[in-house]
Design a protein that fits this description.
Elements lengths: L3 E6 L3 H12 L1 H8 L3 E7 L14 E2 L3 H4 L6 E4 L6 H11 L3 E4 L2 H18 L3 E2 L10 H8 L5 E7 L2 H13 L3 H10 L8 H4 L2 H15 L9 E2 L7 H9 L2 E11 L4 E11 L11 E8 L3 E8 L3 H17 L31 E11 L4 H11 L4 E6 L7 E8 L2 E2 H12 L4 E11 L3
Parallel strand pairs: 1-2, 1-4, 2-3, 4-5, 5-6, 8-10, 10-17
Antiparallel strand pairs: 7-9, 7-11, 9-10, 11-12, 13-15, 13-16, 13-17, 14-15
Helix pairs in contact: 1-12, 4-5, 5-10, 7-8, 13-14
């Protein structure tokens, strides 16, 4: 059969990894597809020594690739949401299939891109946009397609997981670990997207749409980072038998869908609590299959390139298929997406870990427990250290499940007490069952 010709836009870490996999595994890929996949052209602003493009048609203008009539599949690996969006929409307009690893592009503009792809009868594949080399998109969209998905929870940012692991295992401070993560290349010079949860929120947006059959709604994801987590938070959570993980959580409830990214206490008995370092993992609970866990490398040239090339193979296999009978972009048919409401964070219910500093005086604890009780909050466990050289002591309270709005009201009243010093550190707790 006639070879499938691809054009790669972007030759950075993922682009070079994808290029090398296509070259080095060409024979295996041909056996899987039934015809060869050839790199027709590469569009890159500069060469990458990791990829030998000496025998490849290279252009400095990436739009040469999308306008090349010989190319069947455009691979967008430049990142960002401006030029990348223009590039992808132009490729679709030219009736070329698209493979991308761009989570921000899909999370923020996917609804428009998929509608255009549907109109033109082409595919947009994006496995590499979430959790690098872990095939979580295919797992949820196809492997679990018989299930009604109840919830999913994932460690979907390796930088944040590396930081939390080091803080937990070695008692290190956030700023100290962040500097090491930057030195090792895990974190950018500006780490905001990773440590404040924006990267994870992009990925959660995509996973939730596929799990629940809802439009992509990045602007509805509650997002909270890990930069305020302290060594004391980690120490107390360890004493209580929990690990702090930066999770993306999507849950279907009777009132609507929860979409949230935040630091979370997870019992050390849970598999997800034992995913450490830069690794990623996603738990998915289906009504038929029960809880599942998918684990692996969430970033890297070859790991992410593996997902990119897997998408190329999928697209190549379906080039002759009826567009109406392909796997839908967001798992559900485009005209059957649900209008399930995305809940405001105030409506979410979970347990809470509260870490505060109080004056060690008679009646202080009674006042705090009275406020919690008045707001319908039940205490699960409590740690109060003995007084040291000062009159102030740390107090940690773990609560049973309660609505966020009740907890907000209680925290405001507790912080207003004259014997409570400073702000209360609040971390949510998930049972994941």
């Amino acid at each position: 059969m006639k070879p499938v010709k691809v054009g790669i836009c972007g030759l950075g870490t993922v682009g070079s990894g994808s290029f090398n996999i296509l070259r080095e595994n060409a024979e295996e890929i041909t056996r899987r597809v039934g015809r060869s996949i050839e790199i027709e052209q590469v569009g890159a602003r500069r060469d990458n020594p990791s990829a030998d493009t000496s025998a490849t048609n290279v252009t400095r203008n990436i739009f040469d690739v999308v306008n090349n009539p010989e190319i069947d599949i455009v691979i967008e690996l430049i990142g960002g949401t401006t030029i990348a969006k223009e590039l992808v929409l132009q490729a679709i307009e030219n009736q070329k299939h698209v493979v991308t690893a761009n989570k921000a592009l899909i999370a923020e503009h996917g609804n428009e891109i998929f509608a255009k792809a549907q109109e033109k009868g082409v595919m947009v594949a994006f496995e590499a946009a979430v959790a690098g080399g872990i095939p979580i998109i295919k797992t949820v969209r196809e492997g679990l397609s018989a299930n009604k998905i109840d919830w999913l929870a994932g460690i979907i940012n390796g930088t944040g997981n590396f930081i939390m692991t080091e803080m937990s295992d070695k008692g290190r401070a956030f700023d100290d670990v962040l500097k090491e993560a930057q030195a090792l290349g895990y974190a950018e010079a500006d780490p905001t997207f990773d440590v404040e949860g924006i990267d994870a929120a992009h990925k959660l947006t995509i996973l939730a749409s596929i799990a629940f059959g809802i439009p992509l709604q990045f602007d509805r994801v509650y997002t909270e980072g890990i930069s305020q987590i302290t060594e004391k938070d980690v120490s107390f959570s360890n004493q209580l038998g929990y690990s702090i993980k930066h999770l993306g959580i999507a849950r279907r409830t009777a009132k609507g869908v929860e979409l949230r990214v935040h630091p979370t206490l997870v019992s050390k008995k849970q598999l997800l609590a034992n995913v450490n370092g830069v690794m990623n993992a996603v738990m998915v609970k289906g009504d038929a299959v029960g809880p599942t866990l998918t684990y692996g490398a969430g970033a890297g040239a070859l790991a992410t390139g593996s997902s990119v090339v897997a998408d190329i193979i999928d697209v190549a296999r379906t080039l002759t298929a009826d567009p109406d009978n392909r796997v839908p972009h967001l798992a559900f048919q485009a005209n059957a997406l649900s209008d399930l409401e995305v809940l405001d964070i105030d409506e979410v219910e979970c347990g809470f870990f509260l870490n505060m500093t109080i004056q060690d005086r008679a009646g202080v604890l009674a006042n705090i427990t009275q406020i919690l009780s008045t707001n319908g909050i039940s205490i699960e466990s409590l740690i109060q250290q003995e007084k040291g050289v000062s009159d102030s002591v740390p107090l940690v309270v773990m609560t049973h499940t309660v609505a966020e709005k009740n907890m907000n009201a209680a925290i405001a009243k507790i912080e207003a007490l004259p014997d409570v010093i400073g702000k209360i550190q609040r971390i949510r707790v998930e049972a994941l069952i």
